[in-house]
Amino acid sequence: MNVRELKEALEDLPDDMEVICQKDSEGNGYSPLSGIDSDAYYVADSTYSGDVYMEEDRNEFGVDEQELIYKTKSLILYPTN
Q1: Whole-number Å distance between alpha carbons of 61 and 19
Q2: Is 6 helix (H, G, I), strand (E, B) or coil?
Q3: What is the pTM assigned to this prediction?
């Protein structure tokens, strides 16, 4: 899902509706949305998981600069728990 698709999905919903994050695809827990980060890069390890990096932290985590050059920034939603 991209930001455009998310906006379309949310456009008719009330502004004061709480946002709850499902912890996994099996529904093994839920948590309220705590915050977002739009200044991060998602680097996939597989088709279903990966890691998130901030551009300025790439050296600390050993992420190859070339690896991030070919990635676009991603919107990250952080759960409370």
Answers
A1: 30
A2: helix
A3: 0.69
